[in-house]
């Protein structure tokens, strides 16, 4: 059922991983796929590893919206990996028998000051890099909503809602709802500083501005999924849902809520 044929394998370049990937490459060729060695030629990108590898695959390949991403886990099923290496034949069978579907996952577009936008599949996190709290003015659209003082904030996508966001008691969001969720990291709430104190979810057309108050502690660590950005000084972080999505191949029989149940209940 998949008409795209140019397949690029993304994995950690180690002898152990090569040993795992080679049979997968052979299987793909036997089934009519054409292996390519540059990302530009690819229209299917297969990440081999865990969720970590999948997050890296999307980042290192530039969040291509003209490609199909497939996550193959070397261990157990993950949140972005619907297939496992131990079940390769089943994977090909599923593709041929229409047991798979393509899901479009929302991603965040993050612009820091006037830098080039970056994209996040799980979340963008902003944290103080010193023991002292830091202050962020939170603006929704043009509206000054609250002033945050604490360790930091997490802005997550629906698929990222089960990751870092969930660890700080954010809600799990169905990925069919295009939205972004804002969660606090240890906000200070007293008679002087007040924040909402709960996570909140913004709709697809909202624009969030996080203005880092320049009080000497304005060198936050900014994380994009599993990477820390090298930007050392940030004044303004603008976050919205990107116009682009990433397309992910998944098993019809492995819904988001099945993943949530399997992993958390
Ligand atoms: P990692 O090795 O630190 O693993 C974190 C765990 O999160 C792994 O078990 C991974 O499979 C899982 N994970 C990743 N994306 C997920 C998702 N969308 N839903 C549910 N679980 C998910 O790092 P990694 O594997 O590279 O993952 C990076 C992610 O780790 C970050 O994007 C962030 O969401 C998360 N993280 C969580 C915490 C925390 O919970 N306190 C702290 C830092 C980062």
From TrEMBL:
<keyword id="KW-0418">Kinase</keyword>
<keyword id="KW-0963">Cytoplasm</keyword>
<comment type="function">
    <text>Involved in the regulation of the intracellular balance of NAD and NADP, and is a key enzyme in the biosynthesis of NADP. Catalyzes specifically the phosphorylation on 2'-hydroxyl of the adenosine moiety of NAD to yield NADP.</text>
</comment>
<keyword id="KW-0547">Nucleotide-binding</keyword>
<dbReference type="GO" id="GO:0051287">
    <property type="term" value="F:NAD binding"/>
</dbReference>
<dbReference type="GO" id="GO:0046872">
    <property type="term" value="F:metal ion binding"/>
</dbReference>
<feature type="binding site">
    <location>
        <position position="186"/>
    </location>
    <ligand>
        <name>NAD(+)</name>
    </ligand>
</feature>
<dbReference type="GO" id="GO:0005737">
    <property type="term" value="C:cytoplasm"/>
</dbReference>
<protein>
    <recommendedName>
        <fullName>NAD kinase</fullName>
        <ecNumber>2.7.1.23</ecNumber>
    </recommendedName>
</protein>
<comment type="similarity">
    <text>Belongs to the NAD kinase family.</text>
</comment>
<keyword id="KW-0521">NADP</keyword>
<keyword id="KW-0808">Transferase</keyword>
<dbReference type="GO" id="GO:0019674">
    <property type="term" value="P:NAD+ metabolic process"/>
</dbReference>
<dbReference type="InterPro" id="IPR002504">
    <property type="entry name" value="NADK"/>
</dbReference>
<dbReference type="InterPro" id="IPR017437">
    <property type="entry name" value="ATP-NAD_kinase_PpnK-typ_C"/>
</dbReference>
<keyword id="KW-0520">NAD</keyword>
<dbReference type="GO" id="GO:0005524">
    <property type="term" value="F:ATP binding"/>
</dbReference>
<feature type="active site" description="Proton acceptor">
    <location>
        <position position="51"/>
    </location>
</feature>
<feature type="binding site">
    <location>
        <position position="151"/>
    </location>
    <ligand>
        <name>NAD(+)</name>
    </ligand>
</feature>
<dbReference type="Pfam" id="PF20143">
    <property type="entry name" value="NAD_kinase_C"/>
</dbReference>
<dbReference type="InterPro" id="IPR016064">
    <property type="entry name" value="NAD/diacylglycerol_kinase_sf"/>
</dbReference>
<dbReference type="InterPro" id="IPR017438">
    <property type="entry name" value="ATP-NAD_kinase_N"/>
</dbReference>
<dbReference type="GO" id="GO:0003951">
    <property type="term" value="F:NAD+ kinase activity"/>
</dbReference>
<keyword id="KW-0067">ATP-binding</keyword>
<dbReference type="GO" id="GO:0006741">
    <property type="term" value="P:NADP+ biosynthetic process"/>
</dbReference>
<feature type="binding site">
    <location>
        <position position="149"/>
    </location>
    <ligand>
        <name>NAD(+)</name>
    </ligand>
</feature>
<feature type="binding site">
    <location>
        <begin position="162"/>
        <end position="167"/>
    </location>
    <ligand>
        <name>NAD(+)</name>
    </ligand>
</feature>
<feature type="binding site">
    <location>
        <begin position="122"/>
        <end position="123"/>
    </location>
    <ligand>
        <name>NAD(+)</name>
    </ligand>
</feature>
């Amino acid at each position: 059922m998949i008409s795209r044929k140019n397949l690029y394998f993304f994995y950690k370049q180690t002898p152990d991983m090569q040993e795992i990937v080679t049979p997968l490459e052979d299987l793909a060729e036997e089934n009519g796929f054409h292996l390519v060695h540059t990302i530009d030629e690819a229209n299917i990108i297969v990440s081999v590893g865990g969720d970590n590898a999948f997050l890296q695959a999307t980042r290192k390949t530039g969040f291509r919206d003209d490609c199909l991403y497939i996550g193959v886990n070397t261990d157990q099923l993950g949140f972005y990996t619907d297939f496992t290496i131990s079940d390769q034949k089943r994977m090909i069978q599923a593709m041929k028998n229409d047991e798979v579907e393509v899901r479009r996952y929302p991603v965040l577009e993050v612009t820091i000051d006037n830098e080039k936008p970056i994209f996040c599949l799980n979340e963008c996190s902003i944290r103080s890099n010193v023991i002292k709290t830091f202050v962020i003015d939170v603006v929704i659209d043009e509206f000054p909503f609250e002033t945050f003082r604490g360790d930091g904030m997490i802005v997550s996508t629906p698929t990222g809602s089960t990751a870092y966001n969930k660890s700080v008691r954010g809600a799990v969001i169905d990925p069919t709802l295009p939205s972004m969720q804002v969660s606090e990291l240890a906000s200070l709430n007293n008679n002087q500083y007040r924040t909402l104190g709960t996570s909140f979810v913004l709709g697809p057309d909202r624009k969030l501005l996080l203005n880092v108050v320049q009080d000497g502690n304005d060198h936050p660590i900014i994380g994009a999924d599993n990477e820390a950005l090298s930007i050392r000084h940030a004044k303004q972080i603008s976050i919205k849902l990107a116009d682009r999505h990433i397309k992910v191949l998944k098993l019809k029989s492995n819904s988001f809520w099945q993943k949530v149940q399997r992993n958390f209940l």
